[in-house]
Amino acid sequence: MSKFIDRVVLHVRAGKGGHGCASVHREKFKPLGGPDGGNGGNGGDVILEVDANVHTLLDFHFHPHAKAGNGKPGEGGNRDGKQGADLVLKVPDGTVVVDKHGSIVVDLVGAGNRFVIARGGRGGLGNASLASKARKAPGFALLGEDGEEMDVVLELKSVADVGLVGFPSAGKSSLVSVLSAAKPKIADYPFTTLVPNLGVVVAGDTTFTVADVPGLIPGASDGRGLGLDFLRHLERCAVLAHVVDCATLEPGRDPVSDVDALEAELAAYKPALAGDAGLGDLADRPRVVILNKTDVPDAAELAEMVTEEFAARGWPVFEISAVSRAGLRPLTFALADMVHQYRVEHPKAAPKRPVIRPIAVDETGFSVIADPEQPGGFIVRGTRPERWVRQTQFDNDEAVGYLADRLARLGVEDELVKQGAEPGAYVTIGDVSFEWEPTVSAGVDMVPTGRGTDVRLERNERIGAAERKHASRVRRGLVDDEG
Fold first, then answer.
1. What is the pTM of this model?
2. In the predicted model, is pLDDT for residue 107 greater than 70?
3. Ligand-binding site membership of 205 (annotated)
4. Residue 396 among known ligand-binding residues
5. Which pLDDT score, from 0 to 100, does residue 220 have?
6. Which carries the bigger pLDDT value, residue 111 or residue 333?
7. Is residue 170 marked as binding?
8. Is the pLDDT of residue 311 over 80?
9. Do 416 and 422 contact (CB within 8 A), yes or no?
């Protein structure tokens, strides 16, 4: 049996960027062929795309984890790594993406509309791309970045022109079945529909959609029953139609009290998308009152009694019977006229032409603040410094020296001095903390040493052969300790 899902939590993770390659060209009779390490490929993006053939979030309910392809690492011979494959997720029209803080990220309406929910990581540069006049044969490459990872909530808001509102078993599903070709579940006992049903109605030259929203009860706007789960499906409806059961035998219920109770819930409900599509709050939507089940004699008499009261509120009133189909034709054309009027007053915006604007690759700004958890420590924040740290191989002295040069040229060293940083102070950039050593010259051209090494970072703590020989002679008593 198919299952309707209109709210899911989705875990998305974009692809990782491939690492750059540190390679030296090797060829017979050419021992110093130069660096030829290729760049890593970028990670794939996770993209949400509206598909007219998708009507539910069921696939994401069973597969809540979405991961794009990783970029391939670069290779020798100046061969760049392959780009990671993008992951395109098909979502229904009317899907709203909400982040973990409850803020709306994007509202996807219209077939073909796309949004990149998670961007893939950048691939690292190979040593061929890092070569310069001062560093002709780098013995390192940059690491690829991780792709974006996050949890988002997908909520489906039905895109319908007319929303049918009413108590459980008021006949909304039956009305959809006779107005359109939809075949919702209908039973002859009191129950409430568990999923919204949509139907397409044709009246003359006007075609519109009608949504049967599951039955509401008093307290629905506060989360009672299924109210909050399905009230959001009314947010995009241009017309709200109250379907009233005039043949109910429940004590204390009558058409007027039913409508008043539902109106109170509609007024109390606060849409997540305030002013969605320019429609305003639910309390401001045009209303229609549909008095159903008038094929029952007592219901017909009751409908005649309450018609004038609803008409006094300025609402069109229609007496119908979904079973005998009496009164359906005037209702259908009246709804079509109201939808047509709304479309005239709110014409669809012309499709926007794609505009390609240059986007800055990086931001040069950064800030240095005192570390609240480390006395005398500092935290460096900024797009470039944090990216450079993520791309650095800290087990490679030459790569660390290259990072120091980049930070110095950006002005991080000078800013630390202005902030009063002392030698040995802990400095944190991104997820890495290190001891600041201002005595290490950075940002100047250094004479390169061996591949993968940096003379500024040499720390040789091993005991030399002469020292070991002297210690052995001391242990044997051949010389004193001071000799």
1. 0.67
2. yes
3. no
4. no
5. 42
6. 333
7. yes
8. yes
9. no
